[in-house]
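From the methods appendix. Each design record in this collection lists the tokenized structure first, followed by the designed amino acid sequence. Records were kept in a plain field format so they could be parsed without special tools. The example shown here is representative of the layout used throughout.

RECORD:
FOLD TOKENS (270 positions):
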């Protein structure tokens, strides 16, 4: 294995696919192919574009379990564009126990902290799925434009679309920041990847993408969008009256219509 490939694997969880035969030199090509397919199926590895020792873009693997076990540095958190609107959300996972009471359209952040769960490996595998989607959609599918650790990810979907995910070491939820003038598409992408992961590997879980509307409260994204689109009436969230005009003024990036026929789905259970 080349020096750069070795450094990428053990410091960043990245592996040039061309060095796999050297790592598994005692295995036949057929066995190596089957092992790689099994790793992808189980979420142990994801396809990614990397740089080789000569700086060329080559196919590779992102291995979530080998992502750096540290927080991101200030330089890693630096966005590609600093002029984009930012929208903060919370991705909450929970068991059969509901986050809110029946028909309740908002919950407190304290309840999220108490009732959500975050299984080991979930965020890393979610990041893997999102990187695959980003590199598929991005005309410059280079992983060096992103920042990936076990506690933080900055994923570039294009010059004007960036997604940040992070969690504290003892947190039971994932904080999400979407940097885009139109955040609906990235929110939908996040929901789809989350649901794919739940369906294939964490079947006992439910998920909710929640919008932070005050210091103490969050509202399910579908409920906020219904209010913002005028298909649902206003609700009181603590001392805040969340109505159509307030939603349009403060959460416009989450209310814009998606383009190219992209659909979003709600996975919040009441």
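DESIGN:
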């Amino acid at each position: 294995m080349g020096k750069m490939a070795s450094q990428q694997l053990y410091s960043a969880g990245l592996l040039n696919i061309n060095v796999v035969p050297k790592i598994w030199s005692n295995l036949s090509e057929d066995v190596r192919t089957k092992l790689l397919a099994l790793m992808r199926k189980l979420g142990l590895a994801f396809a990614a574009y990397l740089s080789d020792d000569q700086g060329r873009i080559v196919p590779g693997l992102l291995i979530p379990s080998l992502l750096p076990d540290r927080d991101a540095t200030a330089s890693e958190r630096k966005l590609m564009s600093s002029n984009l609107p930012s929208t903060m959300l919370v991705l909450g996972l929970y068991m059969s126990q509901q986050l809110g009471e029946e028909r309740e359209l908002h919950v407190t952040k304290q309840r999220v902290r108490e009732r959500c769960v975050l299984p080991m490996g979930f965020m890393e595998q979610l990041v893997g799925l999102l990187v695959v989607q980003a590199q598929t959609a991005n005309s410059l599918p280079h992983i060096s434009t992103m920042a990936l650790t076990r506690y933080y990810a900055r994923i570039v979907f294009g010059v004007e679309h960036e997604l940040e995910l992070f969690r504290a070491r003892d947190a039971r939820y994932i904080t999400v920041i979407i940097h885009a003038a139109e955040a609906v598409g990235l929110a939908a992408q996040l929901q789809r990847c989350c649901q794919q992961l739940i369906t294939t590997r964490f079947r006992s879980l439910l998920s909710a993408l929640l919008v932070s509307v005050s210091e103490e409260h969050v509202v399910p994204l579908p409920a906020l969008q219904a209010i913002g689109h005028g298909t649902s009436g206003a609700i009181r969230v603590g001392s805040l009256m969340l109505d159509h005009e307030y939603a349009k003024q403060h959460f416009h990036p989450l209310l814009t219509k998606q383009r190219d026929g992209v659909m979003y789905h709600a996975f919040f259970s009441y």
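APPENDIX NOTE: Residues 184-201 form the longest helix (18 residues).
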